[in-house]
Amino acid sequence: MDIVEALRQMPPERKVFIFGIDEDEDLDWIMAVANYITLEFIKYSYDYNDPVYPLRHFLDNNDDSERMLQSRIVKYVLKYKKKELERAPNLPPYHKYSDIDMDNMEQKLKGYRFTEMNYFEHQNIHDLEIIKAIVEKRIVSSKKVSNQHFEEMFEQYDKMVEELMKWSLRSDHDMVFTSLALFTLEWKFAIETLYHIAWLMEDKGIKTIDQSTLILICGGVMIESQFGDSVITDSSMVMERLYVLDFLFDNKNKWPYKQSLIDLIKEILVIGVRFREAVETEDGEPYKEWFRKESTEEDWASFFRYYNIFSIWQKKEWTRKRIQNMRVLYDLIIRPKE
After folding, report:
1. Does the pTM exceed 0.90?
2. Nearest in space to 156 (alpha carbons), one of 128, 114, 123
3. Minimal CA–CA distance to 15: which of 313, 268, 324, 206?
4. What CA–CA distances, in Å, run from 207 to 79, 198, 325, 337?
């Protein structure tokens, strides 16, 4: 509710553009933006507090063969993360690909070190076939990933999410960990978002998708705000973006109306960055630091029981056309913007 109140205290011109005037405020949008920002603060707080361990902490059998296997997995993951950094060297430090590196002597002396979430994410990139196919850019080619294998990969992913849902019920910590895990997977790989668009394309007979709009919804973007801000960010509104997909990509809706929604989404993303990086308490402390110190894991778990991130997931059903649409969508996301 502090965040809701802060949103209402924004400069009038910006506030009216995003939420409307006081009597006609769009309360659904206010709450959606407040929830999105709250999740950002929880993610920051969790990452900050998540202890760092040497690689051997996570190994079941601390023998040479397992250590070598895990070392290969780490090198595999970092190989693809480095490629992303090379394409965008000015990524901010909180970006999804900011991660450990072994290029300097200090890191080599320390060895590989991970938080629980780091390790889980690295294992997913290596062990989940769909994630490997995405990062290796094989997903777009039927020669590299047959339709049958395509379905099998998504079935493996769906089973993993079902396990996370069961796991989330065990404790407050597990609720927070699994919710952030699914949030991060969807933020990075947009599986549920693209599946919904692929279904929409098939259902509505949509032949083409605007690449810029798609990247705004689930990619990395630079935004020039009409209110003077300029930010580089990722669209991490994982839950909220699902609300607008049907309107944005259905060809029955006229472009001027779509453009209005696109402009609104851009300003909300800018507001998210401003809250994360610039908003302070009355004492001049960054709000994210106040939030980190004053909130607890129990609070975060309570939020995720209300803000159910698992509601974005649906069990996948495939047709040949839907598979083809998914390949096209991943191609638009993976290849450089035209």
Report:
1. no
2. 128
3. 268
4. 35, 10, 9, 19
CA atoms within 13 A on the CB side of 52: 9
Cβ-Cβ contacts under 8 Å for 15 (sequence gap 6 or more): 7, 8
**Contact criterion met (CB below 8 Å) for 136 and 84:** no
- Helix 255-277 and helix 12-19: axis angle, to 10°? 130
The per-residue pLDDT for 77 is: 67
Q: Tokens in use for 157?
A: 């992913």
Residue range 304-309: mean pLDDT, rounded: 95
User: Residue 174 in contact with residue 83, Cβ under 8 Å?
Assistant: no
Burial (Cβ within 10 Å: 0-12, 13-18, ≥19) of residue 210: middle
Phi/psi for 188 (5° steps) reads -80, -35
Residue the block writes with tokens 């072994």: 102
Q: Can you give the pLDDT at residue 81?
A: 62
Q: Are 269 and 235 in contact (CB under 8 A)?
A: yes
3-state per-residue secondary structure call for 50-111: CCCEEHHHHCCCCCHHHHHHHHHHHHHHHHHHHHHHHHCCCCCCCCCCCCCCCCCHHHHHHC
Instruction: Tell me how far apart the terminal alpha carbons of the chain are, to the nearest angstrom.
Output: 41
At 65, is the pLDDT very low, low, confident or very high (cuts 50, 70, 90)? low
